[in-house]
Design brief:
This protein is an alpha+beta fold. It is 44% helix and 18% strand. It is built from 6 helices and 8 strands; from the N terminus they run βααβαββαββααββ. α1 runs antiparallel to α2, α3 runs parallel beside α4 and α4 runs antiparallel to α6.
């Protein structure tokens, strides 16, 4: 059984954000994602400095190595998901997107199933893929599976993300933020990513919708009926 989530369609009137504010909020979001693993590196170095035995030194080095790996993975992900990733009109390999997505999102709690073909797509569409996965992650706060599939083919391809996990649900604020109609127009660093995902979708000429299908949550980004080619607009 499938049910649409209220507020999941894009209304005609959306909130606009000053480009400087959008840039600042996205930078804050990236910094937030890096604070925890960066702090763990600092902690590991402090433990290593005070270590008196080999076991403690081994623990500290392992902590530093794992945390540095997480920082690198998140930076690579953010570079594609939020960064310019080349000049206007540039294309990005979906294979590169899969690599950074697995590195940043997969862990002992979350597993990713990637069924998109390996081909070059306009950069905004690839950025949208990564941002859809971030949205999907918010629907399984206790972990689970993410599965992304293509809808259609070629440069006009849309996307379908299905999540399954304990208490999988669509946070009430999420569709409104993606639609650009948040209850509170004063966005913060936590809210900017869904808002940015909506900007990307509209730049690509795609509509984002949320639905609950049994125990799964489904997020789709597809062209509306009768839509033409992807707009020229570029985000980020």
């Amino acid at each position: 059984m499938s049910s649409a989530v209220p507020g999941s369609t894009v209304p005609s009137s959306t909130v606009t954000l000053d480009p400087l504010d959008l840039t600042a909020l996205l930078c804050s979001r990236v910094c937030h994602d890096l604070i925890s693993p960066s702090g763990a590196i600092v902690n590991g170095l402090e433990v290593l400095e005070d270590a008196q035995d080999e076991e403690t030194k081994t623990f500290a080095l392992d902590l530093i190595k794992k945390s540095a790996g997480r920082v690198s993975a998140r930076l690579q992900f953010c570079r594609l998901a939020f960064g310019a990733s080349g000049s206007a009109g540039a294309q990005i390999d979906l294979g590169d997107a899969e690599k950074v997505a697995r590195g940043a999102l997969e862990d002992e709690k979350v597993k990713l199933s990637w069924s998109l073909p390996r081909l070059l797509l306009p950069k905004n569409r690839v950025k949208l893929v990564l941002n859809l996965l971030l949205l999907a992650g918010q629907t399984i706060p206790r972990g689970g599976t993410l599965a992304i599939d293509p809808v259609g083919a070629g440069e006009s391809m849309g996307f379908r993300v299905e999540t399954r996990g304990m208490n999988a649900r669509v946070p009430q604020h999420l569709p409104h933020l993606v639609a650009g109609t948040p209850e509170d127009p004063a966005l913060d660093a936590h809210a900017v990513q869904p808002f940015y995902a909506g900007l990307l979708a509209r730049a690509c000429g795609l509509d984002v919708a949320f639905a609950v299908e049994g125990e799964a949550v489904v997020i789709t980004a597809v062209a509306p009926a009768g839509a033409g080619a992807e707009p020229v607009a570029s985000v980020g």
